[in-house]
Design goal:
It is built from ten helices and three strands, in the order H-E-H-H-E-E-H-H-H-H-H-H-H. Strand 2 and strand 3 form a beta hairpin.
C-alpha cells in the first residue's frame, strides 16, 4: 500500500491500522508487529512507532512493556464505562451548541443527508462515517479545545462499538438516522432536556445490544470480524 510522502505519514499509517481494528480485521489481543507493518507498508519503523502512539491515544491499542502493541478488547465493564462517559460528553457538546444560538447547522444537515443515503443504499460504512461527521460538526461552533479534543480521541472507540452493534439482529440503521434527526431538532430548539433524553436513550440502547451480544458469545471479546467491508482509508 502506498502513502503520500508528507508530514501526515504517521497519521495515514494510524488511520490504516485503525480502520482494520474498527472493522475487525485486526482482532482483540492481536499483536501489531512494528517490523512487519513497516515492511508491508514500505515505511520506516520509526513512523510505525509514532503511528502506534496515535492509536493508543485513540483507545484502540495498548502498548505493553516487553510485549509491544496489542489490540485492545472491550469487556462488559469497559463498555459500560465508555457508554456513560461518551454520552455525557455528547450531552455537553450538543447542549453547548444549542446554547450558542448558532444559525450555522449546515454540517449537521450534510451529515444527515449522508446518513439518509446510507440507509437507502444499506451502506453501513458510510453511515458510521456520517455519524462521526455529525459529532464533529459541533466542534467549530463551540471552539472549545478540551471538549473537542477529548471527544476526538474517543470517537474511534465509538465507531468500533457501532460495528459491534451492527451485528445484533435487532439493530436497524433507520434507528440511527431517526435519532440524529430528532437530536438536531432538539439542538435547533435549544431543548436541553430533550437533548439529554435522546443521547442517553440512544447510548443505553446501543450498550444493551452490545452486552446482549457479549452474553450470547459466552463473554468472548466483542470486537471481531463483523462481516462488513472496510471503511474508507481516512476513516479516523
Amino acid at each position: 500500500m502506498g502513502f503520500e510522502p508528507a508530514v501526515r505519514l504517521t497519521e495515514q499509517i494510524a488511520d490504516h491500522l485503525g480502520t482494520q481494528i474498527i472493522t475487525g480485521r485486526l482482532k482483540p489481543q492481536a499483536r501489531i508487529q512494528e517490523l512487519k507493518v513497516a515492511s508491508d507498508l514500505s515505511v520506516s519503523r520509526g513512523s510505525v512507532r509514532e503511528a502506534l502512539l496515535i492509536l493508543e491515544s485513540r483507545h484502540l491499542i495498548e502498548i505493553i512493556p516487553r510485549r509491544g502493541a496489542i489490540v485492545s478488547s472491550l469487556e462488559a465493564g469497559q463498555v459500560d464505562d465508555f457508554s456513560e462517559l461518551f454520552s455525557e460528553l455528547l450531552c455537553q457538546l450538543y447542549v453547548k451548541v444549542a446554547a450558542s444560538r448558532s444559525l450555522c447547522f449546515d454540517e449537521f444537515s450534510l451529515s444527515l443527508e449522508r446518513m439518509e443515503r446510507a440507509v437507502v443504499q444499506d451502506d453501513f460504512d458510510t453511515l458510521v462515517l456520517a455519524r462521526r461527521s455529525f459529532i464533529r460538526a459541533g466542534f467549530p461552533i463551540l471552539d472549545t479545545f478540551y471538549l473537542s479534543a477529548v471527544l476526538s480521541g474517543l470517537i474511534p472507540a465509538d465507531m468500533r462499538l457501532a460495528y459491534v452493534v451492527s451485528r445484533h439482529p435487532d439493530y436497524d440503521m433507520r434507528d440511527t438516522l431517526r435519532y440524529h434527526q430528532a437530536l438536531l431538532e432538539a439542538v435547533r430548539g435549544n431543548d436541553d432536556a430533550r437533548i439529554r433524553e435522546l443521547v442517553h436513550a440512544h447510548s443505553g440502547r446501543e450498550k444493551k445490544l452490545v452486552l446482549s451480544l457479549q452474553r450470547s458469545s459466552s463473554a468472548r471479546p466483542l470486537v471481531g470480524n463483523f462481516g462488513r467491508a472496510a471503511i474508507a482509508q481516512k476513516a479516523l
